[in-house]
Design goal:
It is found in: Cell membrane. The structure is a single chain. The protein is mainly beta. It folds into 3 domains: 121 residues, Cupredoxins -  blue copper proteins (Immunoglobulin-like), CATH 2.60.40.420; 168 residues, Immunoglobulin-like; 178 residues, Cupredoxins -  blue copper proteins (Immunoglobulin-like, Sandwich). It has 5 helices and 30 strands. β20 and β21 form a beta hairpin. The longest helix is centred in the C-terminal third of the chain and has 9 residues. The two termini are 34 Å apart. Bound molecules: CU-O-CU linkage (C2O). The site of CU-O-CU linkage has 11 residues, from β5 and β29.
């Protein structure tokens, strides 16, 4: 079937932490923005209108491969021109992956001002479909009282030479600081968690209820029990929670921002958000929980339900060394191999489609896009050497990857590894935490021609340039891609493309 949404983004008001009302970007005058719900195999059509008078916009569907539809991916100046005020774009594609996703603006640092919501692909044939009675969506996020353009300007500035990221005022669950989930006794719930934060990872745990992980980032896993989870910005984890038979009592659950991410923890910051599993509306709600002893589940232990084996050894290894330092303007930037990403003048996809055979030459994309060419169907290893003392959640568009190795903190650069020592059935996801001072090795097959970003999903580091562009199978892409007219029109309007060209 076809599912259609008409979305107009506009300014509205919000006060999710109950402390401060501010302007937020909503959809159709509503904030929090609507959840997108589709069934596996549906065609999704979103008629998107930018009703903001003062900002460009776009939508990205985080975690969807967009196989054959790379121009529907959404990042501004990568696969489309941003939508200027008053203009429209139609996103139109088949959703052929089940699970828990989210959607967000992919223009500068826009989404933390409000354009981020859950995107659920229901799967009537899923392996766990008979294992639960109902679904609950639990979004996690962080919240700033100031607007992103203001914060961004202060962040990228000679007045902030260390690159200290703005610290959010509050942690949120379901865009609130006060959430009650009504549950029935003796039932099993599938709780889909999505961290839509700009910055903060969250620890999540439930009072006296064990979580059984069954999905991460749209990948079903073998069930695994967890007392606590850790979700970086952009990660999703679905769990089964079975309720107690006794309804005399209610239980708390907690989200707690990882304060290791913050350069300086402001006085009086409350890093926590408390929610309640409500069995009995007459019983009291318990107090916030203390931070427990237990450790969060290590996602490297999770085994995909599909049991897809380790891919063959890489044909091509892309090594990305992460550093941070100042440029001539005195502001702090982030670098992959000494290059900080700058948005090109023409969307990279349009370049890939218009330069003929030169599309396999990284130089045509401009070095500030930090381009890497991935030959069609080759096995790619991405080695991220995180030479920075901070944690970074890296996300690859257009793919999931096998995480075949992750070092401990401060382990230094990757120096090779025996194939036989990689897990036989590696964990798979689309956003991975790179340890401070250590490294991760990610493996995937270049089976999705397109232009795909790989970036740190801390919105601050997207702004400071921790972004690289993968140009995957450009010749195959040229053979099979026609950009829709209304996408081209955005670039014509901006004077980037000529009419009829
Ligand atoms: Cu959530 Cu570049 O994406």
């Amino acid at each position: 079937k076809t599912v259609t949404y008409d979305f107009s983004v506009t300014w509205t008001k919000g006060n999710p932490d109950g402390q401060y009302e501010r302007k937020v970007i909503g959809i159709n005058g509503q904030w929090p923005i609507p959840q997108i719900d589709v069934d596996l195999g549906d065609r999704l059509v979103i008629n998107f209108h930018n009703g903001l008078p003062d900002q460009d916009s776009s939508l990205h569907f985080h975690g969807l491969f967009q196989n054959g539809t790379t121009f529907m991916d959404g990042p501004a100046m990568v696969s489309q021109c941003p939508v200027p005020p008053g203009m429209n774009i139609t996103y139109d594609f088949i959703v052929d992956q089940p699970g828990t996703y989210w959607y967000h603006s992919h223009v500068k640092g826009q989404y933390p001002d409000g354009i981020r919501g859950a995107f659920i692909v229901h799967d009537p044939q899923g392996p766990y479909k008979n294992s639960y009675d109902a679904e609950i969506i639990l979004t996690l996020s962080d919240w700033y009282h100031e607007q992103m353009p203001v914060l961004a300007k202060r962040f990228i500035s000679y007045l902030n030479p260390t690159g200290a990221e703005p610290v959010p005022q509050s942690a949120l669950m379901n865009d609130s600081q006060n959430i009650t989930l009504a549950v029935k006794p003796g039932k099993t719930y599938m709780v889909r968690m999505v961290n839509m934060a700009a910055f903060a990872a969250q620890y999540v745990w439930f009072e006296e209820h064990t979580m059984k992980v069954i999905e991460i980032d749209g990948i079903y896993t073998e069930p695994m029990d967890a007392d606590m989870l850790y979700l970086t910005a952009a990660q999703r984890v679905s769990v089964l929670i079975t309720t107690k038979n006794d309804t005399s009592k209610n239980y708390a659950f907690m989200g707690s921002m990882d304060q290791d991410l913050f350069d300086k923890v402001p006085d009086g910051l409350n890093p926590n958000v408390t929610g309640w599993l409500s069995y009995n509306s007459n019983a009291p709600l318990p107090a916030a929980l203390p931070v427990p002893e237990f450790k969060p589940l290590d996602d490297m232990l999770l085994i995909p339900y599909s049991r897809i084996p380790l891919l063959p050894p890489a044909d091509l290894t892309v090594t990305l060394n992460v550093t941070m330092s100042n440029l001539g303007d005195g502001a702090n930037y982030a670098f992959f191999n000494g290059l900080t990403y700058v948005r090109p003048q023409v969307p990279t996809l349009f370049t890939a489609l218009s330069v003929g055979d030169a599309a396999t030459n990284p130089l045509v994309y401009g070095r500030d896009t930090v381009p890497h060419i991935l030959p069609h169907m080759q096995i790619i290893d991405i080695v991220v050497n995180n030479q920075d003392p901070g944690k970074h959640p890296f996300h690859l568009h257009g793919h999931v990857f096998q995480t075949i190795f992750r070092s401990s903190d401060d382990a230094g650069n990757f120096e090779g590894h025996l194939e036989s020592e990689y897990p036989k059935v590696p964990m798979i996801r689309d956003t991975i935490l790179a340890p401070p001072g250590g490294h991760v090795v990610l493996r995937f097959r270049a089976d999705n021609p397109g232009v795909w970003l790989f970036h740190c999903h801390l919105e601050w580091h997207l702004l400071s340039g921790l972004v690289t562009t993968f140009i995957e199978a450009p010749m195959e892409l040229q053979r099979n891609t026609t950009i829709p007219e209304n996408h081209r029109a955005l670039c014509v309007k901006r004077g980037i493309l000529m009419e009829g060209n």
